[in-house]
Design brief:
Blueprint lengths: L6 E6 L8 E5 L14 E6 L2 E11 L10 E2 L2 E2 L8 H13 L4 H5 L5 H4 L4 H12 L16 H12 L4 E7 L5 H18 L5 E5 L6 H11 L5 E4 L5 H12 L5 E4 L11 E6 L17 H12 L2 E6 L4 H8 L4 E5 L11 E6 L11 H13 L2 E5 L8 E4 L16 E3 L4 E3 L6 E3 L12 E4 L3 H11 L5 E4 L9 H10 L5 E4 L12 E6 L13 H13 L12 E6 L5 H7 L3 H15 L6 E9 L2 H12 L8 E2 L3 E8 L2 E10 L2 H17 L5 E6 L5
Parallel strand pairs: 2-5, 7-12, 7-13, 8-10, 8-11, 9-10, 11-12, 14-24, 15-22, 15-23, 21-22, 23-24
Antiparallel strand pairs: 1-2, 1-4, 3-4, 3-6, 16-20, 17-18, 18-19, 25-28, 25-29, 26-28, 27-28
Helix pairs in contact: 1-9, 4-8, 5-6
Bound molecules: adenosine-5'-diphosphate and zinc ion (ZN) (2 copies).
Adenosine-5'-diphosphate binds next to helix 6.
């Protein structure tokens, strides 16, 4: 036998260096299997050993042979990641301007990247031991209405790439359409002898167990796995392997699961496609919805994105014919009708402790009838600020451009932006006045007032403070579902997804601040949030017509007028028109460079230099400015916005620019975000 030729491998490693690293493989034994692209391998890196991903194999190397180190071991027990998966991570890395290794490796479960492969081996054994898929006939769901049926037929008719925007009012039965389409696609592929896979993305972690149960119940005997950040490492490894080995038929997951390896993926579903939680806000700042669409196109498979309030990007594509729009116009459950929405004009009506007389009367009626009410106030704590009338002292955070929030039950002032916590001062720190005033209202203060107003009512508050313990949010929602709550009060946590059967009144307290935000997306978000929370009411057939009451000082505002009419298309048309004339996304493409430093001057100087680093024809680079909340935890932050009408031009520029930025001496921390959602 001729001596085997050593092979030269390029590996992606989880380091901030944007290079692929060269290693050599030579067989120790004659029957050693050669490495393959997409496999994981353990290699020496400096003085450490790390696990990397094999991205290329060559017969020779440009580097001097004595400089190249040998790889330590190949994880042969794990089948290689597919070329499509590699292409997806490479696209994500390129598009969001990060090194491939920083994208591809962190999205694999830790057990795969561990130096000891015992956990991986155990998980592989367990996964292999679970039966693939039994003959899985789905249990019967409700009979589809005409709109739903048309949607399912359209979605499952073709097997090649198309994007469908499923625009359905809250309660219109979108989930049913997803499940039925998944079922049809799996069935169709089975006829071809293919054990196909479906990926379903959902936004919030607290939706997953609810949805998971209903999906499992619908497809008994089918392998359904979930992937989200709350899983233990063992669970996550098993779910991931089950998807990677092609066993799992349905993968339900939050944004990170868009990067799950699924060799037989035939359909992707993105529920609540507009939800901001699809955008990762640190590290690789990717949009899971956008990556999902790229993935579908690369695989030439259909993708469905659904929402009652689609993002302006998706709506624009649907209106211009790039996406197919399917509409579910009515609520699915018989007799469940959309609630009546009314505005309470707070310029004219006087409120007591934040609650107007009409809203209080409506609450009283629900209590008398034994129905549930929901009050939505997107502000936790007791009062957003404490104030001294005598000298004007105000509870600023010492470390942030923000107020310390009064938390009465916890007897603390808390900053919601850094970890700072203080005892509530018994007197004014500046003048000694003992009569400090809470200003404004949070959920705790409304809760206190509700208990005074309705001592006999069962009031439950659900917000980040009341649900700190693991599992407590689940438990709280279960209490509501069991009917043990009369008035549910909460922040955006209560706005989403939940199907409360006895709820006939929704009250919205003080939503107006978003109307005047510096962030051009605030209106879009507020509209989506109000539609969502309004959508909690009247989901089942009830005796009384359900109602949504919005307390506002701006009753004539176009956003509220559109809300009254349940008119998302009208709202979207007006919003898109504004964006077009103001030159905002989706009509331009943006990227944001942010810098952090001990002083604002340093951060601004860095950005100014970055701005002048390269010529940039076709790209507008705005002036560096402080971030709206300039200081957080004693770090000053500034930002530089880049804009271009051409995505390609922006991408090409960013690639060169980031290379230059990386060469600069590391004076401060900077991050680049492509398609930023917080401006
Ligand atoms: P969406 O996600 O569009 O807000 P859901 O999928 O949660 O709506 O459906 C709302 C309710 O309607 C659920 O309780 C669901 O079981 C029910 N439902 C869905 N489709 C039908 C149907 N065809 N007939 C009767 N009830 C249905
Ligand atoms: Zn004072
Ligand atoms: Zn702070």
């Amino acid at each position: 036998m001729p001596p085997p030729i050593p092979r030269f491998l390029k590996l992606a490693l989880d380091t901030p260096l944007d290079i692929e690293f060269d290693y050599r493989w030579q067989p120790q034994w004659a029957d050693d299997s050669p490495p393959r692209i997409g496999q994981l391998a353990q290699v020496p890196f400096g003085r450490r050993q790390v696990v990397g991903l094999i991205v290329a194999i060559h017969e020779s190397s440009d580097h001097a042979a004595e400089k190249i180190r040998d790889i330590t071991a190949i994880r042969h027990q794990l089948p290689p990641l597919s070329s499509h998966w590699m292409a997806l991570s490479r696209f994500a890395a390129d598009y969001y301007q990060r090194p491939l290794g920083e994208v591809a490796l962190p999205c694999l479960p830790k057990n795969l990247r561990a130096l000891k492969s015992t956990a991986l081996d155990t998980a592989l054994k367990k996964t292999a031991a679970t039966p693939q898929t039994a003959n899985s006939t789905a249990t019967l769901g409700p009979e589809l209405n005409a709109d739903q049926k048309a949607a399912v037929d359209a979605i499952s008719a073709a097997s090649d790439y198309s994007v469908t925007l499923l625009f359905g009012v809250t309660g219109s039965g979108k989930t049913e359409v997803y499940l039925r389409s998944a079922e049809k696609v799996l069935e169709r592929e089975k006829q071809q002898g293919i054990h196909a896979q479906v990926l379903m993305l959902v936004p919030e972690i607290n939706l997953t167990p609810q949805l998971e149960n209903s999906v499992r119940a619908r497809f008994p005997g089918m392998n359904v796995v979930s992937l989200h950040s709350q899983l233990s490492e063992g669970e996550r490894t098993r779910s991931w392997l089950s998807a990677h080995l092609g066993h799992a038929s349905i993968v339900l997951g939050t944004r990170l699961s868009v990067l799950a390896s699924m060799p037989n993926l035939k359909l992707i579903i993105v529920d609540e496609e507009h939800d901001p939680s699809y955008k990762q806000q640190e590290g690789l700042r990717y949009s899971a919805r956008d990556l999902a669409i790229w993935r579908a196109r690369d695989l030439n498979i259909p993708i469905v994105i659904g929402s009652a309030t689609p993002s302006m990007e998706s709506w624009h594509h649907a209106e211009s014919g790039r996406y197919r729009k399917l509409v579910l116009a009515q609520r699915a459950a018989t007799q469940a009708v959309l609630p009546n929405i009314s505005l309470i004009d707070m310029e004219r009506i006087k409120a007591t402790e934040g609650l107007s007389p009409p809203l209080v009367a409506a609450l009283r009626e629900r209590l008398a009838r034994g129905e549930q009410s929901l009050l939505f106030l997107n502000r936790r704590g007791y009062a957003p600020v404490v104030h001294c009338d005598a000298c004007g002292w105000i509870s600023n955070c010492q470390r942030c451009t923000a107020f310390m929030v009064l938390h009465k039950p916890e007897k603390r002032l808390r900053c919601h932006h850094c970890s700072l916590e203080l005892k509530i001062p018994s007197s004014c720190p500046t003048c000694g006045n003992v009569d400090l005033q809470p200003l404004g209202r949070g959920t705790q203060r409304i809760e206190e007032h509700l208990q005074v107003l309705f001592p006999e009512a069962r009031v439950l508050r659900i917000d980040a403070d009341s649900t700190r313990k693991k599992g407590s949010a689940q438990a709280a929602f279960a209490t509501v579902h069991r009917g043990e709550v009369d008035i549910l009060l909460g922040t955006q946590m209560v706005a989403k997804g939940h199907d409360f059967q006895r709820l006939t009144l929704v009250g919205v307290i003080n939503p107006d601040t978003a109307l005047f935000s510096h962030d051009y997306r605030a209106g879009e978000r507020l509209f989506a949030q109000l539609m969502q929370v309004a959508g909690r009411a009247g989901r089942a057939a009830r005796m009384s017509q359900s109602e949504v009451m919005v307390q506002t000082r701006y009753a004539q505002h176009p956003l509220y007028r559109a809300l009254l009419a349940h008119d998302f298309p009208g709202f979207a048309a007006a919003t898109l028109e504004e964006r077009r004339s103001a030159g905002l996304p989706p009509f331009v493409f943006q990227a944001m460079l942010r810098a952090e430093s001990t002083t604002l001057t340093k951060a601004l100087e860095f950005l100014q230099q970055a701005r002048e680093l390269l010529p940039h024809p076709g790209i507008v680079i705005n002036d560096p400015v402080p971030v709206a909340m300039t200081r957080v935890a004693n770090v000053e932050r500034a930002q530089l916005l880049l804009e271009s009408p051409a995505r390609g031009a922006l991408q090409s520029f960013l690639k060169l620019w980031v290379q230059e930025l990386r060469k600069q001496p590391a004076r401060l921390r900077w991050t680049l975000e492509v398609d930023p959602i917080d401006i």
